[in-house]
Amino acid sequence: MARINASYRKLAAGYLFPEIARRTREFIETQGDITVMKLGIGDTTEALAPAVIDGLHHGVDLLADVKTYSGYGSSTGQAPLREGLAEVYKSYGANVNADEFFVSDGAKGDSANIQSIFSADNIVAVQDPAYPVYVDSNVIAGRTGESADGCYQGLVYMPCNVENGFFPAVPDVKVDMIYLCSPNNPTGAVATHEQLKGFVDYANEHKAVIIFDSAYAPFIQDDSLPRSIFEIEGARSCAIEINSFSKWAGFTGVRLGWTIVTDELVVEDSEPGEVKAMWNRRQNTFFNGASNVVQAGGLGVLTPAGREQTDATIAYYMENARLIRAALEELGITCFGGTNAPYVWLKTPGDLGSWEFFDKLLAECHVVGTPGAGFGPSGEGYFRLSAFGHRENVEKAINSIQTKLKI
Ligand code: PLP
Fold first, then answer.
1. Which of 91, 185, 385, 396 has its Cα between 20 and 30 A from that of 174?
2. Does residue 171 have a cis peptide bond before it, meaning omega lies within 30 degrees of 0?
3. Strand 101-104 relative to strand 257-261: parallel, antiparallel, unpaired?
């Protein structure tokens, strides 16, 4: 008799975005002919950079000729891509080597899968609010109890709030796996060197591992802020970093990411190199490598032209963020983020619940955003607006909020 993984039953109330889609659909059905403006999902909208298109074309051309055709490649990625990525990280001041990069088909899968190389009885700490994958993957893996009042038993929530500038203090209990995301989805907050150093010191002291998601690093405008945890002294022995070209270069549909596992990483019961070898083994066993065409596109991102062109697209999204934040602040709404990340995190006016504000924004302005409560209990009373979108659509949404929102 086959049995299911019953931990799936613990997952609370489905995934956030299907619920947003359901409410939006219902609203449209009851209203008839209206256009809903989306500042909700963090998906990129602008065309790929010409240098990336050239890279993708080149990747296709290689496959068209028997002399340059390639089939399965290394499951850890093509050497030029790993070397190019290592150069970018070196330019950040991060101490990483090309053979510590494990190229993948994106950060979401890696964020979900990385827990599988660690013990099932590890205690997990997450920022609250957080990108949902960190929590859900550990629920599915059986590292939590049931969900009660929006919290899973056994999970350590690290609240991110106004008082701590949306970056948590180190846990005051012993934890084993710590998920950090900076620049943060959903709050838009970016950790400073000092804040990350606090976590690195904690992790080294307790032989814990930090899983650091830097998917929005290229959106950092303030050069004093770290773009990689490997800019922090001591991180090589306690951290794993996950990133991708999704937000950096519009690869959300193209799919290309990487995870960095260093030679020095150790946890309580491992030797240096063992965790890296395990991730290598995991990838070799479950993954046959990222698409060769897509990796050629990734190399296009790393050319001087690709860097310049993707920077320009990021600047475009960041101008959207500036416009959104400025308009909301003019209405007297308190905003965070949006300066080093493509998300504006706002305090709901009138202390409305996140979902109440979602319904109000939809009903009054026909604008869809993302309720903060969907990212964890500390997100209640907050709301995320995404800066990904065509300028004219963002401007329409802003105009609608400015003229129709009743506060
Ligand atoms: N990490 C964070 C923090 C994200 O917000 C997202 C996507 O929204 C991802 C990872 C997923 O990235 P990818 O498209 O590379 O799977």
1. 185
2. no
3. antiparallel
pLDDT digits (tens, 9 = 90+) for 357-382: 999 999 999 999 999 999 999 999 99
Q: What is the CA radius of gyration of the chain?
A: 21
Q: What is the pLDDT of residues 154-182, one digit of tens each?
A: 999 999 999 999 999 999 999 999 999 99
Is domain 13-42+306-404 annotated with CATH 1.10.287.3510? no
Domain ranges in the chain?
Answer: 13-42+306-404, 52-302
What is the whole-number distance in angstroms between the Cα of residue 197 and the centre of ligand 1? 24
Residue labelled with tokens 């260093």: 262
Pocket test for ligand 1, best of 108, 136, 179 (most atoms within 8 A of CB): 108
Fold of 52-302: Aspartate Aminotransferase; domain 2 (3.40.640)
- Distance from residue 282's CA to the centre of ligand 1 (Å): 21
The string of pLDDT tens digits covering residues 87-121 is: 999 999 998 999 999 999 999 999 999 999 999 99
Between the CA of 108 and the centroid of ligand 1 the distance, in Å, is 5
387-397: per-residue pLDDT in tens? 999 999 999 99
CA–CA distance from 249 to each of 122, 199, 230 (Å)? 35, 29, 22
pLDDT at 13: 62
Whole-angstrom distance, CA of residue 317 vs CA of residue 107: 20
Alpha-carbon torsion (369, 375, 247, 225), positive or negative: positive
C-alpha 20 to ligand 1 mean position (Å): 18
Question: Which residue type does 274 have?
Answer: E
pLDDT value, residue 14:
60
Q: How far is the CA of 215 from the centre of ligand 1 (A)?
A: 6
Q: What's phi and psi for 178, nearest 5 deg?
A: -125, 120
Ligand 1 residue neighbourhood (C-beta within 6 Å): 42, 106-108, 111, 131, 181, 185, 213, 215, 244, 246, 252, 257
3-state helix, strand, coil in the chain (%, to 5): 45, 15, 40
